[in-house]
User: Fold this.
Amino acid sequence: MSEQRQPVGVIGVGWVGLVTAACFAELGHRVVARDIVPEKVAALSRGESTFHEPGLAEMLRRNAERIDFTTEMPELLEGARLLFVCVDTPPTYSGDADLSRVRSVVEELGADSDHVLVMKSTVPAGTGESIRRDRPGLPYVSCPEFLKEGTAVTDFMNPDRVVIGADPGDEAAGDAVAALYQPLGGEILRTDVSSAEMIKLASNAFLATKISFINEIANVCEEVGADVGEVARGMGLDQRIGPAFLRAGIGYGGSCFPKDVSALKMLAGNTGYHFQLLNSVIEVNELQKRRVVGKLQKHLGSLTGKRIALLGLAFKPDTDDMREASSLVLASRLQGEGAEVVAYDPVAGEAAAALLDSVEMAGSTLDAVEGADAAVLVTEWSEFAELDWAAVAERMARPLLIDGRNALDPEKLRGAGFQYEGIGQSVDDRRISASSVARVQSTPHSLRP
Ligand code: UGA
Assistant:
């Protein structure tokens, strides 16, 4: 068998593991994927995807012949030499990463194992070094994952970069991993294990910092009558800054940013270094999730007895993932103020219902807003941009919309009868909107008002 087509082992079929398994199969490799949860393995073996991710179910179906799912470690070890570890590393109460699942995987490998451990799970810098110390001779490669939920398959197949960390002695293992990724065409960065681990944490922490930064800029924009969308556009045109991750909103969520920012802060703290900036990134994010409550109070006064509709619940669109979703904090804050909360999410309704037991779940936007005193757009699902907003306004007791993701067109919403407020935008009409500036500029001088 050629090096290009060697079998791939995947340990843990969560988001990263299942996408990794499907994509390597798509690239023509045989894949053996192992998970300890029998129900998950049974569902996947029946050809059912275990979560919502665009393109994944089709890819799994297309490659069903090439992927075996199992709960058995011996079957995995027999089937593949390269083992991609994709188990979760959730935060502990202290904010450190919980490495117990990673440790059990290492323990499950026999002492005379000739396998290569490829760490995809996000782990604190130094983890690889400690595993190598405990298991001398076990080839170890750090290969952090940079895919985003909602675009995971495309991200995997079109990487900006592939980071491969291998320490002296493990160069051949690093080469084998590099060969697997080579057909994807992204830049392959070869480095040492600790640096690879830091690249992952630093990248997520930097992106989270960008979001908290633009959210603070948004809050200042509201005070001075500027528009954060325009500010971000102007900033993003500077190539040193770039336009990505400058969308202001009600804070970042998900299974990665909150966990990884806190893990990096703790990692630094454990070495005696106080990572001051990250404390602010976290604090700004927490406060941002609560700002919508203040906006609603500004318009409605006391929220006691008010009916508030949340549109979108997942931590971002195109996923049913509710982990650390801003909607969880928002719903509980609103209920804490005495509001009656009703919610609709196109995909995450079921996952959300399990976490938000006192929130009424609606089957559509129109059902959710029936008789509501306000609606809050929490997750920017594309179906919300395409709604007949005049019909939505008619259903509401008061057509007030707080757009927590600046996903809708303010002029269109106001035209549909809404009192509309976004994040970091001027709330009254004194400010000349960007589109009217563009219109004035393209109008001959003689015709200008
Ligand atoms: C993030 C990283 O973007 C991936 O590169 C990384 O691989 C992944 O974590 C991980 O460590 O596994 P993900 O959590 O799937 O990916 O989602 P993102 O698209 O990064 O969004 C995270 C949160 O930030 C969402 O709540 C989103 O709404 C928010 N966000 C994002 C903003 O508020 N503003 C932005 O401009 C961008």
Summary: The radius of gyration is 24 Å. The mean pLDDT is 92.
